[in-house]
DNA sequence: GTCTATAATCCGATAGAC
DNA sequence: GTCTATCGGATTATAGAC
Protein backbone atom coordinates (compact mmCIF):
# COMPACT_ATOMS: atom_id res chain seq x y z
CA UNK A 1 0.00 0.00 0.00
CA UNK A 2 1.11 3.57 -0.62
CA UNK A 3 3.00 5.09 2.29
CA UNK A 4 0.67 7.10 4.45
CA UNK A 5 2.60 10.32 4.09
CA UNK A 6 3.84 10.02 0.50
CA UNK A 7 1.14 12.00 -1.32
CA UNK A 8 1.28 15.18 0.75
CA UNK A 9 4.38 17.12 1.58
CA UNK A 10 5.27 15.99 5.07
CA UNK A 11 5.42 18.81 7.55
CA UNK A 12 7.51 17.00 10.14
CA UNK A 13 9.96 14.11 9.95
CA UNK A 14 8.39 10.84 11.05
CA UNK A 15 10.64 10.62 14.08
CA UNK A 16 9.31 13.97 15.25
CA UNK A 17 5.70 12.97 14.53
CA UNK A 18 6.20 9.92 16.71
CA UNK A 19 7.88 11.80 19.56
CA UNK A 20 5.25 14.55 19.53
CA UNK A 21 2.46 12.01 19.68
CA UNK A 22 4.19 10.11 22.45
CA UNK A 23 4.69 13.25 24.53
CA UNK A 24 1.05 14.20 24.14
CA UNK A 25 -0.17 10.75 25.17
CA UNK A 26 2.27 10.40 28.04
CA UNK A 27 1.12 13.77 29.36
CA UNK A 28 -2.54 12.94 29.22
CA UNK A 29 -2.55 9.24 30.15
CA UNK A 30 0.93 8.41 31.39
CA UNK A 31 3.54 6.14 29.86
CA UNK A 32 2.00 2.83 30.88
CA UNK A 33 -1.51 3.72 29.77
CA UNK A 34 -0.31 4.76 26.33
CA UNK A 35 0.18 1.71 24.10
CA UNK A 36 2.27 1.81 20.98
CA UNK A 37 -0.94 1.37 19.04
CA UNK A 38 -2.14 4.61 20.62
CA UNK A 39 1.07 6.34 19.60
CA UNK A 40 0.83 4.89 16.13
CA UNK A 41 -2.73 6.18 15.67
CA UNK A 42 -2.01 9.60 17.18
CA UNK A 43 1.10 10.05 15.04
CA UNK A 44 -0.76 8.75 11.96
CA UNK A 45 2.01 6.37 11.01
CA UNK A 46 2.14 2.58 10.86
CA UNK A 47 3.57 0.06 13.28
CA UNK A 48 6.28 -0.63 10.72
CA UNK A 49 7.41 2.99 10.83
CA UNK A 50 7.50 3.02 14.60
CA UNK A 51 9.78 0.00 14.71
CA UNK A 52 11.84 1.31 11.83
CA UNK A 53 12.72 4.44 13.81
CA UNK A 54 12.81 3.05 17.34
CA UNK A 55 13.80 -0.29 18.75
CA UNK A 56 10.72 -0.47 20.97
CA UNK A 57 8.41 1.31 23.33
CA UNK A 58 11.02 2.14 25.91
CA UNK A 59 13.33 3.60 23.26
CA UNK A 60 10.67 6.17 22.37
CA UNK A 61 10.45 7.34 25.97
CA UNK A 62 14.23 7.34 26.26
CA UNK A 63 14.63 9.52 23.16
CA UNK A 64 12.00 11.91 24.43
CA UNK A 65 13.60 12.05 27.85
CA UNK A 66 17.04 12.79 26.45
CA UNK A 67 15.70 15.45 24.08
CA UNK A 68 13.69 17.28 26.72
CA UNK A 69 16.28 17.05 29.44
CA UNK A 70 18.76 18.45 26.91
CA UNK A 71 16.42 21.39 26.25
CA UNK A 72 16.16 22.06 29.95
CA UNK A 73 19.91 21.88 30.36
CA UNK A 74 20.25 24.40 27.53
CA UNK A 75 17.98 26.79 29.44
CA UNK A 76 20.29 26.52 32.44
CA UNK A 77 23.41 26.91 30.28
CA UNK A 78 21.99 30.07 28.71
CA UNK A 79 21.15 31.50 32.12
CA UNK A 80 24.73 30.88 33.24
CA UNK A 81 26.27 32.31 30.07
CA UNK A 82 24.16 35.48 30.12
CA UNK A 83 24.85 36.41 33.75
CA UNK A 84 27.77 36.47 36.13
CA UNK A 85 26.46 36.30 39.70
CA UNK A 86 24.70 33.51 41.53
CA UNK A 87 21.68 35.74 42.13
CA UNK A 88 21.18 36.76 38.51
CA UNK A 89 21.87 33.25 37.25
CA UNK A 90 19.32 31.72 39.62
CA UNK A 91 16.75 34.31 38.73
CA UNK A 92 17.31 33.82 35.02
CA UNK A 93 16.97 30.05 35.41
CA UNK A 94 13.69 30.38 37.28
CA UNK A 95 12.45 32.88 34.69
CA UNK A 96 13.29 30.46 31.89
CA UNK A 97 11.61 27.57 33.69
CA UNK A 98 8.47 29.63 34.35
CA UNK A 99 8.28 30.64 30.69
CA UNK A 100 8.94 27.07 29.58
CA UNK A 101 6.07 25.93 31.80
CA UNK A 102 3.68 28.29 30.04
CA UNK A 103 4.88 27.69 26.47
CA UNK A 104 5.52 23.93 26.74
CA UNK A 105 3.55 22.55 29.66
CA UNK A 106 3.66 18.98 28.38
CA UNK A 107 7.43 19.03 27.99
CA UNK A 108 7.88 20.59 31.41
CA UNK A 109 5.54 18.09 33.00
CA UNK A 110 7.27 15.13 31.40
CA UNK A 111 10.61 16.24 32.82
CA UNK A 112 9.49 17.38 36.26
CA UNK A 113 6.55 15.11 37.04
CA UNK A 114 7.01 11.76 35.36
CA UNK A 115 8.56 8.84 37.26
CA UNK A 116 11.21 8.01 34.66
CA UNK A 117 12.85 5.30 36.65
CA UNK A 118 9.69 3.24 36.42
CA UNK A 119 9.92 2.94 32.65
CA UNK A 120 13.53 3.70 31.73
CA UNK A 121 15.70 0.80 32.88
CA UNK A 122 18.99 1.76 34.50
CA UNK A 123 18.32 5.49 34.31
CA UNK A 124 19.83 7.55 37.12
CA UNK A 125 17.51 9.71 39.27
CA UNK A 126 16.67 12.92 37.46
CA UNK A 127 18.10 14.99 40.33
CA UNK A 128 21.52 13.69 39.30
CA UNK A 129 21.09 14.85 35.70
CA UNK A 130 23.34 17.60 34.38
CA UNK A 131 20.54 20.16 34.36
CA UNK A 132 19.81 19.74 38.05
CA UNK A 133 23.44 19.44 39.06
CA UNK A 134 24.22 22.66 37.22
CA UNK A 135 21.40 24.43 39.05
CA UNK A 136 22.82 23.21 42.35
CA UNK A 137 26.30 24.32 41.30
CA UNK A 138 25.12 27.85 40.50
CA UNK A 139 24.02 28.28 44.09
CA UNK A 140 27.00 26.46 45.55
CA UNK A 141 29.38 28.71 43.62
CA UNK A 142 27.60 31.60 45.30
CA UNK A 143 28.26 30.00 48.66
CA UNK A 144 31.96 29.67 47.91
CA UNK A 145 32.25 33.25 46.69
CA UNK A 146 30.49 34.58 49.79
CA UNK A 147 27.48 35.80 47.85
CA UNK A 148 25.20 33.19 49.46
CA UNK A 149 25.12 32.13 53.10
CA UNK A 150 27.02 29.03 54.04
CA UNK A 151 24.92 25.89 53.51
CA UNK A 152 25.15 22.31 52.30
CA UNK A 153 25.02 22.29 48.46
CA UNK A 154 21.65 20.49 48.18
CA UNK A 155 20.17 22.57 50.99
CA UNK A 156 21.17 25.72 49.15
CA UNK A 157 19.70 24.37 45.92
CA UNK A 158 16.45 23.46 47.68
CA UNK A 159 16.19 26.91 49.20
CA UNK A 160 16.88 28.63 45.88
CA UNK A 161 14.76 26.50 43.55
CA UNK A 162 12.33 24.65 45.82
CA UNK A 163 9.62 27.32 45.90
CA UNK A 164 9.77 27.87 42.14
CA UNK A 165 9.69 24.14 41.35
CA UNK A 166 6.74 23.74 43.70
CA UNK A 167 4.87 26.50 41.91
CA UNK A 168 5.52 24.85 38.56
CA UNK A 169 3.95 21.63 39.82
CA UNK A 170 0.96 23.54 41.20
CA UNK A 171 0.58 25.40 37.93
CA UNK A 172 0.71 22.20 35.87
CA UNK A 173 -1.88 20.63 38.17
CA UNK A 174 -4.20 23.59 37.65
CA UNK A 175 -4.05 24.89 41.22
CA UNK A 176 -2.43 28.18 40.20
CA UNK A 177 -4.57 29.98 37.64
CA UNK A 178 -2.37 32.83 36.51
CA UNK A 179 0.78 32.54 34.35
CA UNK A 180 3.87 31.95 36.46
CA UNK A 181 6.01 34.76 34.99
CA UNK A 182 3.64 37.21 36.71
CA UNK A 183 4.88 35.82 40.04
CA UNK A 184 8.56 35.83 39.15
CA UNK A 185 9.56 39.07 40.84
CA UNK A 186 7.69 38.31 44.06
CA UNK A 187 8.96 34.75 44.36
CA UNK A 188 12.50 35.60 43.47
CA UNK A 189 12.87 38.57 45.82
CA UNK A 190 11.57 36.52 48.76
CA UNK A 191 13.75 33.56 47.83
CA UNK A 192 16.88 35.60 47.42
CA UNK A 193 16.30 37.46 50.68
CA UNK A 194 16.32 34.11 52.45
CA UNK A 195 19.67 32.87 51.18
CA UNK A 196 21.80 35.92 50.40
CA UNK A 197 24.74 36.62 52.67
CA UNK A 198 24.20 39.44 55.11
CA UNK B 1 -5.57 -27.24 50.78
CA UNK B 2 -4.96 -25.83 54.23
CA UNK B 3 -4.98 -22.04 54.34
CA UNK B 4 -1.46 -20.68 54.09
CA UNK B 5 -1.61 -18.83 57.37
CA UNK B 6 -3.72 -21.21 59.43
CA UNK B 7 -1.01 -23.20 61.23
CA UNK B 8 0.96 -20.30 62.70
CA UNK B 9 -0.49 -17.40 64.59
CA UNK B 10 -0.79 -14.69 62.02
CA UNK B 11 1.15 -11.58 62.93
CA UNK B 12 -0.76 -9.21 60.69
CA UNK B 13 -4.26 -9.28 59.22
CA UNK B 14 -4.28 -10.37 55.60
CA UNK B 15 -5.42 -6.98 54.42
CA UNK B 16 -2.36 -5.44 56.04
CA UNK B 17 -0.06 -8.12 54.62
CA UNK B 18 -1.35 -7.28 51.16
CA UNK B 19 -1.06 -3.52 51.57
CA UNK B 20 2.45 -3.78 53.01
CA UNK B 21 3.57 -5.96 50.14
CA UNK B 22 1.95 -3.62 47.62
CA UNK B 23 3.63 -0.57 49.13
CA UNK B 24 7.02 -2.27 49.03
CA UNK B 25 6.62 -3.33 45.41
CA UNK B 26 5.21 0.00 44.27
CA UNK B 27 8.18 1.74 45.89
CA UNK B 28 10.78 -0.45 44.25
CA UNK B 29 9.23 -1.09 40.83
CA UNK B 30 6.29 1.26 40.46
CA UNK B 31 2.59 0.45 40.28
CA UNK B 32 2.52 -0.71 36.68
CA UNK B 33 5.57 -2.95 36.98
CA UNK B 34 4.15 -4.70 40.03
CA UNK B 35 1.66 -7.32 38.93
CA UNK B 36 -0.98 -8.77 41.17
CA UNK B 37 0.95 -12.03 41.04
CA UNK B 38 3.99 -10.18 42.43
CA UNK B 39 1.92 -8.81 45.28
CA UNK B 40 0.46 -12.22 45.97
CA UNK B 41 3.92 -13.80 46.20
CA UNK B 42 5.41 -10.99 48.29
CA UNK B 43 2.47 -11.02 50.73
CA UNK B 44 2.54 -14.84 50.84
CA UNK B 45 -1.19 -15.15 50.27
CA UNK B 46 -3.19 -16.61 47.41
CA UNK B 47 -4.94 -14.92 44.51
CA UNK B 48 -8.21 -15.91 46.12
CA UNK B 49 -7.36 -13.94 49.26
CA UNK B 50 -6.40 -10.91 47.25
CA UNK B 51 -9.73 -10.84 45.48
CA UNK B 52 -11.58 -11.66 48.66
CA UNK B 53 -10.23 -8.49 50.28
CA UNK B 54 -10.02 -6.17 47.30
CA UNK B 55 -12.08 -5.82 44.17
CA UNK B 56 -9.02 -5.62 41.95
CA UNK B 57 -5.59 -4.20 41.41
CA UNK B 58 -6.65 -0.58 41.39
CA UNK B 59 -8.58 -1.03 44.64
CA UNK B 60 -5.36 -2.05 46.41
CA UNK B 61 -3.63 1.12 45.30
CA UNK B 62 -6.67 3.19 46.21
CA UNK B 63 -6.81 1.74 49.74
CA UNK B 64 -3.11 2.38 50.19
CA UNK B 65 -3.44 5.91 48.89
CA UNK B 66 -6.33 6.71 51.20
CA UNK B 67 -4.57 5.19 54.22
CA UNK B 68 -1.29 7.00 53.66
CA UNK B 69 -2.81 10.32 52.74
CA UNK B 70 -4.86 10.02 55.91
CA UNK B 71 -1.70 9.48 57.95
CA UNK B 72 -0.15 12.54 56.40
CA UNK B 73 -3.24 14.60 57.06
CA UNK B 74 -3.08 13.46 60.70
CA UNK B 75 0.49 14.77 60.92
CA UNK B 76 -0.74 18.16 59.72
CA UNK B 77 -3.73 18.10 62.08
CA UNK B 78 -1.47 17.36 65.04
CA UNK B 79 0.86 20.18 64.08
CA UNK B 80 -2.10 22.55 63.98
CA UNK B 81 -3.56 21.32 67.27
CA UNK B 82 -0.26 21.52 69.14
CA UNK B 83 0.61 25.09 68.10
CA UNK B 84 -1.11 28.40 67.69
CA UNK B 85 0.90 30.53 65.26
CA UNK B 86 1.50 30.09 61.56
CA UNK B 87 5.24 29.95 62.16
CA UNK B 88 5.17 27.23 64.78
CA UNK B 89 2.54 25.25 62.88
CA UNK B 90 4.58 25.33 59.68
CA UNK B 91 7.72 24.37 61.50
CA UNK B 92 5.98 21.50 63.27
CA UNK B 93 4.55 20.24 59.99
CA UNK B 94 7.96 20.27 58.32
CA UNK B 95 9.46 18.56 61.36
CA UNK B 96 6.83 15.83 61.20
CA UNK B 97 7.33 15.37 57.44
CA UNK B 98 11.11 15.15 57.85
CA UNK B 99 10.75 12.53 60.57
CA UNK B 100 8.17 10.64 58.54
CA UNK B 101 10.62 10.59 55.63
CA UNK B 102 13.25 8.93 57.79
CA UNK B 103 10.98 6.45 59.57
CA UNK B 104 8.71 5.57 56.63
CA UNK B 105 10.50 6.43 53.39
CA UNK B 106 8.32 4.13 51.29
CA UNK B 107 5.11 5.65 52.60
CA UNK B 108 6.43 9.17 52.11
CA UNK B 109 7.60 8.36 48.59
CA UNK B 110 4.28 6.83 47.62
CA UNK B 111 2.44 9.95 48.67
CA UNK B 112 4.88 12.57 47.39
CA UNK B 113 6.42 10.94 44.34
CA UNK B 114 3.94 8.58 42.72
CA UNK B 115 1.78 9.73 39.80
CA UNK B 116 -1.52 8.65 41.29
CA UNK B 117 -3.66 10.01 38.53
CA UNK B 118 -2.10 7.54 36.13
CA UNK B 119 -3.47 4.55 38.03
CA UNK B 120 -6.37 5.84 40.15
CA UNK B 121 -9.25 6.72 37.87
CA UNK B 122 -11.08 9.93 38.68
CA UNK B 123 -8.73 10.85 41.52
CA UNK B 124 -8.23 14.58 42.04
CA UNK B 125 -4.66 15.97 41.91
CA UNK B 126 -2.91 15.34 45.20
CA UNK B 127 -2.30 19.07 45.68
CA UNK B 128 -6.04 19.42 46.18
CA UNK B 129 -6.13 16.78 48.92
CA UNK B 130 -7.04 17.85 52.44
CA UNK B 131 -3.48 17.43 53.71
CA UNK B 132 -2.05 19.84 51.17
CA UNK B 133 -4.93 22.28 51.39
CA UNK B 134 -4.54 22.40 55.17
CA UNK B 135 -0.84 23.14 54.78
CA UNK B 136 -1.69 25.98 52.43
CA UNK B 137 -4.32 27.26 54.85
CA UNK B 138 -1.88 27.36 57.75
CA UNK B 139 0.24 29.83 55.82
CA UNK B 140 -2.70 31.74 54.44
CA UNK B 141 -4.12 32.20 57.92
CA UNK B 142 -0.77 33.76 58.80
CA UNK B 143 -1.17 36.15 55.89
CA UNK B 144 -4.61 37.22 57.07
CA UNK B 145 -3.44 37.72 60.65
CA UNK B 146 -0.48 39.83 59.53
CA UNK B 147 2.07 37.30 60.71
CA UNK B 148 3.14 36.49 57.13
CA UNK B 149 3.70 38.95 54.29
CA UNK B 150 0.88 39.45 51.87
CA UNK B 151 0.97 36.85 49.08
CA UNK B 152 -1.29 34.68 46.97
CA UNK B 153 -2.23 31.56 48.98
CA UNK B 154 -0.41 29.05 46.77
CA UNK B 155 2.60 31.32 46.48
CA UNK B 156 2.79 31.52 50.26
CA UNK B 157 2.46 27.75 50.54
CA UNK B 158 5.21 27.24 47.96
CA UNK B 159 7.52 29.60 49.78
CA UNK B 160 6.85 27.96 53.15
CA UNK B 161 6.94 24.30 52.14
CA UNK B 162 8.69 24.25 48.75
CA UNK B 163 12.25 24.00 50.08
CA UNK B 164 11.35 21.28 52.60
CA UNK B 165 9.40 19.23 50.05
CA UNK B 166 12.29 19.52 47.62
CA UNK B 167 14.69 18.23 50.28
CA UNK B 168 12.42 15.28 50.95
CA UNK B 169 12.53 14.32 47.27
CA UNK B 170 16.30 14.69 47.21
CA UNK B 171 16.61 12.62 50.35
CA UNK B 172 14.39 9.84 48.97
CA UNK B 173 16.42 9.83 45.75
CA UNK B 174 19.63 9.40 47.73
CA UNK B 175 21.14 12.79 46.87
CA UNK B 176 21.10 13.99 50.48
CA UNK B 177 23.02 11.61 52.69
CA UNK B 178 22.26 12.82 56.20
CA UNK B 179 18.91 12.54 58.01
CA UNK B 180 16.64 15.46 57.25
CA UNK B 181 15.82 16.38 60.88
CA UNK B 182 19.44 17.52 61.22
CA UNK B 183 18.65 20.24 58.66
CA UNK B 184 15.37 21.30 60.18
CA UNK B 185 16.57 24.34 62.10
CA UNK B 186 18.65 25.70 59.24
CA UNK B 187 15.95 25.21 56.61
CA UNK B 188 13.18 26.55 58.74
CA UNK B 189 14.98 29.67 59.94
CA UNK B 190 15.87 30.62 56.36
CA UNK B 191 12.37 29.83 55.11
CA UNK B 192 10.66 31.79 57.83
CA UNK B 193 12.96 34.77 57.38
CA UNK B 194 11.80 34.93 53.79
CA UNK B 195 8.07 35.08 54.43
CA UNK B 196 7.55 36.64 57.86
CA UNK B 197 6.08 40.11 57.99
CA UNK B 198 8.59 42.84 58.78
C1' DG C 1 10.78 2.56 4.35
C1' DT C 2 6.17 1.85 5.01
C1' DC C 3 2.35 -1.03 5.43
C1' DT C 4 -1.05 -4.91 7.43
C1' DA C 5 -1.70 -8.98 9.77
C1' DT C 6 -0.22 -12.13 13.08
C1' DA C 7 2.51 -14.26 16.72
C1' DA C 8 4.12 -14.65 21.50
C1' DT C 9 3.67 -13.10 25.97
C1' DC C 10 1.91 -11.31 30.08
C1' DC C 11 -1.61 -9.76 33.18
C1' DG C 12 -5.93 -9.03 35.56
C1' DA C 13 -9.69 -11.49 36.83
C1' DT C 14 -12.55 -15.71 37.59
C1' DA C 15 -14.04 -20.67 38.43
C1' DG C 16 -14.66 -24.10 41.28
C1' DA C 17 -12.64 -27.42 44.86
C1' DC C 18 -11.97 -27.61 49.72
C1' DG D 1 -12.20 -17.62 53.33
C1' DT D 2 -8.45 -19.56 51.12
C1' DC D 3 -6.53 -22.13 47.54
C1' DT D 4 -4.87 -23.57 42.49
C1' DA D 5 -5.56 -23.57 37.79
C1' DT D 6 -7.15 -21.39 33.89
C1' DC D 7 -9.46 -18.01 30.69
C1' DG D 8 -9.97 -13.92 27.91
C1' DG D 9 -8.01 -9.81 26.47
C1' DA D 10 -4.58 -6.49 25.74
C1' DT D 11 0.09 -5.42 24.48
C1' DT D 12 4.67 -5.56 22.52
C1' DA D 13 7.05 -7.03 18.88
C1' DT D 14 7.74 -9.42 14.35
C1' DA D 15 6.86 -11.37 9.54
C1' DG D 16 6.49 -10.63 5.12
C1' DA D 17 4.18 -8.11 1.07
C1' DC D 18 4.81 -3.94 -1.56
In short:
The structure is a homodimer of 198-residue chains. Chain A is 66% helix and 0% strand. Chain A is mainly α and 198 residues long.
List the helices and strands and how they pair.
Two copies of one chain form a homodimer.
Chain A (H helix, E strand, L loop, with lengths): L13 H16 L6 H8 L3 H7 L3 H26 L3 H18 L1 H8 L17 H16 L7 H20 L11 H12 L3
Helix pairs in contact in A: 1-2, 1-4, 1-6, 4-5, 4-7, 5-6, 5-7, 5-8, 7-8, 8-9
Chain A binds a DNA duplex (18 and 18 nucleotides) through helix 3.
Structure description:
- The structure is a homodimer of 198-residue chains.
- Chain A has helices at residues 14-29, 36-43, 47-53, 57-82, 86-103, 105-112, 130-145, 153-172, 184-195.
- Chain A is an all-alpha fold and 198 residues long.
- In chain A, helix 1 (14-29) crosses helix 4, helix 7 packs across helix 8 and helix 8 runs antiparallel to helix 9 (184-195).
- The interface between A and B is large, with 43 and 43 residues.
CA-based shape of chain A: elongated
E-strand count of chain A: 0
**Total count of helical runs of at least 4 residues of chain A:** 9
Rounded to an integer in angstroms, the radius of gyration calculated over CA atoms of chain A is 20 Å
Structural class of chain A: mainly alpha
Largest interface: A-B, 43 and 43 residues
Order of helices and strands of chain A: HHHHHHHHH
Low-confidence stretches of chain A: none
Instruction: Give the termini distance of chain A in whole angstroms.
Output: 72 Å
For the largest beta-sheet of chain A, the strand count, sense and barrel status come to: none
Oligomerization state: homodimer
- What amount of the residues of chain A lies in strands? under 5%
Q: Roughly how much helix do the residues of chain A carry, as a percent range? A: 55-70%
Overall pLDDT score of chain A:
95
